[in-house]
């Protein structure tokens, strides 16, 4: 596990982003700076770890598999896509629309232990599972040095 310096302003920024998701359109941020893209919505994720891999589960309800793109570049995993809104039908009135539609982007900086070439994705029932295998770490060898 990598140690990360605590930054109280980053925590404040993350809390602000969470509040924005609840009360308005969220703005995407990268490393504390505004990104040029503003997402229409941000899917929620769970990230877990076992001895052999990291697992990212992203909820993408009503998103078609062909509307999802996953890339890994320079140690950053990016998940992007679009959830399309129903076309208006004649004679059909909406009384309330609370779900978000449109494009989304999520990016995650990967730990150095992830084998980028082995990332696998599976999509079922509106959940995208991203399997990020850990690379075999080279264990340091103990070398005995004879004192002359």
Shape designation: elongated
Integer average pLDDT: 81
Instruction: Supply Rg.
Output: 20 Å
The amount of beta strand, in percent, is 25-35%
Helix-strand category: mainly beta
The CATH top-level class label of one domain: Mainly Beta
- Distance between termini? 39 Å
Keywords: Stress response
Protein name: Heat shock protein, Hsp20 family
Family: Belongs to the small heat shock protein (HSP20) family.
List keywords for this structure.
HSP20-like_chaperone, Immunoglobulin-like, 9 strands, about 150 residues, 1 helix, mainly beta, 3-stranded antiparallel β-sheet, 4-stranded antiparallel β-sheet
Task: Give me a quick take on this structure.
With 148 residues, the protein is mostly beta strands.
Describe the protein.
By secondary structure, this protein is mainly beta. The chain has a domain at 37-84 and 100-133: Sandwich (Immunoglobulin-like). It is 11% helix and 34% strand. The strands form three sheets. A four-stranded antiparallel sheet has the order 3-4-9-8, with no helix packed on it. A three-stranded antiparallel sheet has the order 5-6-7, with no helix packed on it. Strand 5 and strand 6 (76-83) form a beta hairpin. The longest helix is centred in the first third of the chain and has 16 residues, at 8-23. Pfam families: HSP20 (PF00011). This is Heat shock protein, Hsp20 family. It comes from Nitrospira moscoviensis.
